[in-house]
Amino acid sequence: MQGSSRIKRLKGRSTKQTKVISDAKLKVVGYLRVSTEGQVSDGHGIDAQERAVRAFAESQGYDLVDVIREAGVSGAVAPASRPGFTRVLELAEENAFTVLLVYKFDRLARNVLHAVTTVHEMRDRFGIVVRSVTEPIDTSTPMGEMIFTVLASMAAQERITITERTMGGRKEKAEKGGFAGGRAPYGYTHDQDRQLVIVPEEAEVVRRIFAERAAGRKLADIADGLNTDAIPSPKGGAWRAGGVHYLLDNPKYAGNVEYLFRFGGAEQHVLRPGTHAPIL
To answer: Quick check: is 153 catalytic?
Structure first.
């Protein structure tokens, strides 16, 4: 019995792909990621990752095809949704490399599902192995894959613990009437201790808005008046009715703080007298 030509074509395609991968077996790509603006601006973190990746590639005799830097992107974002990792996938489609180097596996993703899925996809779709230059794990073996999954789970739990700790600190500060994060509202700035401090010229605009609204003026009319007087909005552009309403709805101007904390499916509304000076 003779097999179909379809099977012959599939076998030929598989053989061709195997040859291409074999020819590129020593080619690698480095993937670097930092999530905070501080790490992006001062270079701390991502430069150290690149030095480590380059040194590792040299020590292993790898041909480093490219080093892709992903700056200011959270590890909670799925890798395929990041611009930098999209480039990694493009190179993978071109069979340009067979090993993806990361500084640590949590640079790939903090989310366990994202990390494990990405490692499996790189292996199953492209025959690419993901290696960490600081963690001795070979994800191409069953044992290495199991250890990687455990490590990814630990990284995810660490992220949850840090988030809970941060959220707990913010809630405690809000409960005491302090400024618990976010952008300082128009009319205020914050000092080095993250306390709200009044900006006098902006505070005058806030008082004007509240006074005109109390006198019965429409939101659009208040915005038009501010624009006529060439007073820039909080974002530097023109005032609009929605922006005026948003400002009027902020309890911080009356000396209060208000936050809605959401985590783990639960939420807590905090509304307290604040420790900052009121504008009104």
So the answer is: no
